[in-house]
Every structure is written in C-alpha cells, then in structure tokens.
Amino acid sequence: MCGIGSALVDVLVETSVDTLVSCGLVKGSMQLMDLAAADAVHALVPGGLERSGGSVANSIAGLAALGARAAMLGRIADDRLGGVFATDMTELGVAFGAQPVVGAGGTGRCLVLITPDAERTMCTSLGVASQLGPSDLDLDLIGRSAITYLEGYLWDEPQAIDAFGVAISTAHAAGRRAAMSLSDSFCVDRHRAEFAELVASDLDIVLGNEGEMCSLMETSSLEEACALVRRPGLLVTVTRGAGGAIAFDGTDGPVVSVDAPAGVKVVDTTGAGDLYAAGFLYGLTHGLDLGASVALGNAAAAECISHVGARPEIDLSTLV
C-alpha cells in the first residue's frame, strides 16, 4: 500500500465549544489557515500533544500497525516538526524516504481542538505539504503498490491535482488500483464537480462518511447517494459513526452493512475515518471479503476513538 497525502504534525488540545465559537470556527470542520492565524488560535488553547498526522498518513500508519507493508509520499521541511513526522512514521514501520525541503517554509501542522463531546475541529497550516507535486512521486513505488491511496484534502492545491493524475495513471498502467478519501464535507463542497468526475471515471475505490457522500451526490438521503454513485468497477465504503459502516461494489449486489462494535467509550473522534480506512484497505489487500474488511475497519476505528489521538494504543494486528 502507498499513501499520498499531507505530511503534518498534529497538535491535539482539549477545549470548549465556547472557545471554538470565539475563534469563529465551525465545530467538526477542517479549516485551512496560515501559520500566524493558527498560532493565534493555539494561543487561546496552549499546550497539546504532538504526533505525526495527516489524514492519509494516519491511515498508512494504521496499515503498518495492522501488519501491512506500507509507504507514504509527502513533503516535510528541514525543521523540528519535519523530524518529528519522519521519526514517528519510520518507528511505526512505514517506508518514508522524502528528503526534507530546505528554505521553503515549515513542515505542515494541524491544531486539533477536541471538545467534550469528543468531536474534533481542525485548524490546518499546510506549510511545505501544500507544495506536493508530480516530482515528489515515486512512480516505481506506485507501480508496485496494490492500492495507492489519495487524500482529498490535497485537491485544494493545484500542483497536487497534477500529482493525482500522474499517480492514478501510473497505478492503472501497472494493473493496480487507485483509492481516494473524500476527506471532509466542506472539502467536497469546494470541489464537488471535480470529485464527482474522479469518482465517475478514474477511481477504483472511494471512502467517505455519510455527510461527505451525501454532499458529493447533492442529496440528504444516503440511500439515494449510494444509488447515484454506483457504477461498474467502483468499490465504495461509507462510515456512519455509531451506525457502523456500509460497502458495495459496482454490480447489482447487496449493500454490505456492519454494525459498530458495542460498548466503546468515545473519547476523541480524531482519525476515526482514517483508521477505518486502514482496516478496510488492509482487508481488501489481504484476502478478506467485503464484510470482514468493513468489520476490521470498524474495529480499528473503535480503538482509535477510545483515546486521544489518531494513532493506535494497542497492537492492531490482534484485530486481524
């Protein structure tokens, strides 16, 4: 498995809904901002836990923890946070060989504000992660990867769009599959036409939550959204929070639905979708059927939301 996404360092801070309102933030959203603006928010909620992050990076870390051979493509700067990201990923068993960029801005970081209801609101400064382009791709690695997993958030950056096209073409030329996370309903709103075109013609696997899928298909009904997105050759999975997750392929076959594990205390939803993706994609690449892949995704997400942060605190391979 190979992931292409934003190489970020997460700074996780617990705060109140009132603080979000005072900062002009929408609870549960991801907002891009420059470093000065992010620092201003962070000044209101000092401290925090630093961990390597980024949506697809979290999924790739989860895949490695499950026992998969996993690699990550992304950009970091030659600074302290770049070192944090590279060290964390390497220690988790992820192949990450990006050379730090010198003198072109800082490593991206994401301030994750966790409210008492366990919802997370993200203030993201992409730094050099926003400069990811075709020259950052390892085409041989993509050609050897069973699935190349793309991060929808990156669609905000023009050169990253070019990188997506090269990555998808390279994967398909090698007989491999390309997958993408829809990332965030606000991200879908910004790029609906482009995402819809990708889903309709270029991608092999799409992952998203209920809100993102409904936004993509411009309907409030998940059932209708699933009917609209379905096409031959496309595998879709949709997470539904406490409602578990569903998956279906492009045929007229049934929609597979698996309940979420019972009795899980929700502490922090940061990375829940990312770890679901890790479990689901592990299943697809290791011979599990669709139902078992969804169940493994649910189990990985359940472990993630039981503690603060998007990285597992148990040996995820025991879930397999």
Topology:
Elements: E1 2-4, E2 8-14, H1 17-22, E3 30-32, H2 35-44, E4 49-53, H3 55-66, E5 71-73, H4 80-91, E6 108-114, E7 120-125, H5 139-144, E8 147-151, H6 158-173, E9 177-181, H7 185-190, H8 192-201, E10 205-209, H9 210-217, H10 222-229, E11 235-239, E12 245-248, E13 256-258, H11 272-285, H12 290-305
Parallel strand pairs: 1-5, 1-8, 2-6, 3-7, 8-9, 9-10, 10-11
Antiparallel strand pairs: 2-4, 6-7, 11-12, 12-13
Summarize the entry for a quick read.
The protein contains twelve helices and 13 strands. 39% of the residues lie in helices and 19% in strands.
Describe the structure.
- By secondary structure, this protein is α/β, with parallel strands linked by helices.
- The chain has one domain: UDP-N-acetylmuramoyl-L-alanine:D-glutamate ligase, CATH 3.40.1190.
- The chain has helices spanning 17-22, 35-44, 55-66, 80-91, 139-144, 158-173, 185-190, 192-201, 210-217, 222-229, 272-285, 290-305; strands at residues 2-4, 8-14, 30-32, 49-53, 71-73, 108-114, 120-125, 147-151, 177-181, 205-209, 235-239, 245-248, 256-258.
- An 8-stranded mixed beta sheet has the order 5-1-8-9-10-11-12-13.
- α11 (272-285) runs antiparallel to α12 (290-305).
- The longest helix has 16 residues, at 158-173.
